[in-house]
Amino acid sequence: MSRNYRFHNPNAPYFVSFAVTEWLDVFTRNEYKDILIDSLSYCQKEKGMEIYAWVIMTNHLHLVFRSVKDIPPGHLLGSFKKNTSKAVVKAIDQNQRESRKEILLEAFKRNGAKNSNVKQNQFWQQNNKPIELWSRKVISQKIKYIHNNPVVHGYVFRPEDYQYSSAVDYSGQSGILDNVVVVGLD
């Protein structure tokens, strides 16, 4: 994590964004996105990650969350990234239908070799750029930004139509990730 970006308040909600190394479009396959969903669900149930909003795009993820247990938010997010990194790389390696397998695995290996903190593959870029959300207005702005990401990228016309997002939860229906904390938007 960059020195400029830190989780200063352990009780605050944060907006974070993180991308796959080289902005590679890994999450074009639902099976890889599902690994992130499973990990987010695990973090909710077992580690105290309270999730307010999320979206998985083809090469990055946006998340508004808060740690509600004694795990510092930076450690919680680090654990999520470490586990999903290993799981997605393994899934790519074992996927017989993955036409980009060699290209992706070589990129992760190459980026891992450049980083002394990484033992083998670097899947995620290191910076999370956490932004502490100090007011209801700022929380609302970030959630709207997250939910509109698939619209801006041309994937859907309405945010709630994108399956891999919490926008459907904010439309009054249930999304694919349980226990999203829906807050009133300004």
Shape: globular
Uncertain stretches: none
Query: What does the largest sheet look like?
Result: 4 strands, antiparallel
- Which H/E pattern describes the elements? EHEEHHEHH
Arithmetic mean of pLDDT: 93
Oligomer: single chain
Number of strands: 4
The first-level CATH class is given as Alpha Beta
CATH superfamily: Transposase IS200-like
Percentage of residues in helical conformation: 25-40%
Count of separate DSSP helical elements: 5
Strand content: 5-15%
Which CATH architecture? 2-Layer Sandwich
Secondary structure class reads alpha+beta
| Biggest sheet, spatial arrangement of strands | 2-3-1-4
Number of domains: 1
Give the CATH topology.
Alpha-Beta Plaits
Structural commentary:
With 186 residues, this protein is an alpha+beta fold. It has a single domain (14-170), classed as Alpha-Beta Plaits (2-Layer Sandwich), CATH 3.30.70. It has helices spanning 30-47, 73-94, 101-113, 136-152, 167-170, and strands at 14-19, 49-56, 60-67, 131-132. Strands 2-3-1-4 form a 4-stranded antiparallel beta sheet. A hairpin with a 3-residue loop joins strand 2 (49-56) and strand 3. Helix 1 (30-47) runs antiparallel to helix 2. The longest helix is centred in the middle third of the chain and has 22 residues, at 73-94. It is globular, with a radius of gyration of 16 Å.
